[in-house]
Amino acid sequence: MMFMVGSDYRVEAMNRVGSEFAGVTGKQSSGGLPPGEVLRCVQAMRVVDECGKGEACTGCVVRNTLKETMETGRAVKRRQGVMEILKDGRLLSVPVAISTSLVPLGESKPKVLLTVDDLTSLFEAKGNLKKTFAALARTQRKARLGSWEYDVTTGLVSFSREIMKIYGIRHEGSTLPIRVFYDRLHPEDRPDVEALVRSATKGRWKADHLFQYRARIGNGNERWMETQMESVPNGGGGWLVFGVTQDITDRKVTELALQDSEQRFRKLFESIQVGVVLVDANTRTVVDANPMALSMMLREREEVIGRQCHNFLCPSMEGECPVLDDGQPVENAERTLLDSKGRAVPVLKSVTAIDYFGRQILLESFLPIPGKKPRKLSVLNRKKT
User: Measured between alpha carbons, how far is 52 from 45 in angstroms, rounded to an integer?
Assistant: First the structure.
């Protein structure tokens, strides 16, 4: 809102926004209105011709700024304050920014151009932004996640507060040399990470990249980190590298434990002297088979994995599985396998339903029956066997 104020501190003209706010026309203001009445100041609205005379007026940001410019000739830019106004029957406290500048008119008395900016929306936006940053900070703390920016030209890295906590960096400022980051890397991982960052600084990483590495924090405590990194031109011929890093130690420890468990299972699975086959209970396809089972069936792994189980484990017709279709328990029962020569191989067989990494699996184990040899099995008698 813009107003022209005369030496008698009365508004002589205003722009359209000012007129709409004051609820008056240009003609209505031509005789001069007190600024308080135009701006709907609570003091001026309650008592006629009292603008500038009340006790509260001594602290009025509009009155004092106008007076300063009128008496000294100095311009004032965006002095902030709060106005108490009456609008639509409500008492409002409105944050404002007041600007004034002297308008010289030769021998005539000077006038002051008054600009009033309503900062309500700005303050609300700042408040919302502050809440957003607070929520982001809480999220980063809980997720053990932070961000950083590496300026290749200066060799400096700007760390977020959470990143400094993650890496155990204690420093008053948040901008530090890149070596501070490198010095906290595990010696075995440092060369690879440095090579990745160097690649990014040459503009080779124009899309997000994800990599994991170990860092040593404080007294040598080893932590796993995961970083997503992207390089963009800095406008001066160089590059900026942006990164988001998360402490994934808990997740990585779990992953490594699962890998170790899988390796132990695989070693036992492949070395045990019992035939073992895993069958998906839903699709009835073979998921895995150990060397002993493949040997007993005279088959290669590629011949079995992904194929229907009735082709190897139970020489019965499709859809007539004793376990899945007939609900028969199988524990140390005499059954037969079908080898690559089309023979029925007598075995002692057990079947157990298990949960295997989220899949419903039939674990079928079997041993050859001493003294019983494989026999040729015709197509006609497969169903009876």
Answer: 12
Q: Which residues face 376 on adjacent strands?
A: 343
- Tell me the average pLDDT across 365-370: 91
Phi, psi of 222 (to 5 degrees): -90, 130
Residue 1's contacts (CB-CB under 8 Å, 6 or more residues apart) are 14, 15, 17, 18, 21, 115, 116, 117, 118
Q: Determine contact, residues 97/76, Cβ cutoff 8 Å.
A: no
Identify any residues that bridge with 86 across adjacent strands, giving them in sequence order: 91
Residues paired with 8 in a beta bridge: none
Q: How many CB atoms lie within 10 A of CB 36?
A: 27
Q: Per-residue pLDDT averaged across 31-43, rounded?
A: 71
User: Can you say whether residue 201 is alpha, beta or left, with left for phi > 0 and alpha for psi between -120 and 50 degrees?
Assistant: alpha
What does the pLDDT read at residue 53? 66
Straight-line distance from the first to the last Cα atom of the chain, in angstroms, rounded to the nearest whole number: 97
Whole-number Cα distances in Å, 215 to 76, 119, 158, 172, 224: 54, 47, 18, 22, 6
Out of 115-124, 264-273, 350-359, the most confident range is 264-273
The residue type found at 124 is E
The pLDDT value given to residue 7 = 82
In a 3-state reduction of DSSP, which class is residue 102? strand
For the question of whether the overall pTM of this predicted structure is more than 0.85, the answer is no
DSSP classification of residue 288:
E
Q: Cα–Cα distance between 81 and 62 in angstroms, integer?
A: 8
272-376 has which CATH code? 3.30.450.20
Query: Is domain 143-252 in CATH 1.20.59.10, yes or no?
Result: no
Residue where the block lists tokens 């009128």: 70
Percent helix, strand, coil in the chain, to 5, is: 30, 35, 35
Residues contacting residue 326 through CB under 8 Å, at least 6 positions apart: 320
Q: C-alpha distances in angstroms, 364 versus 205, 209, 264?
A: 50, 43, 19
* Residue range(s) of every CATH 3.30.450.20 domain in the chain: 2-118, 143-252, 272-376
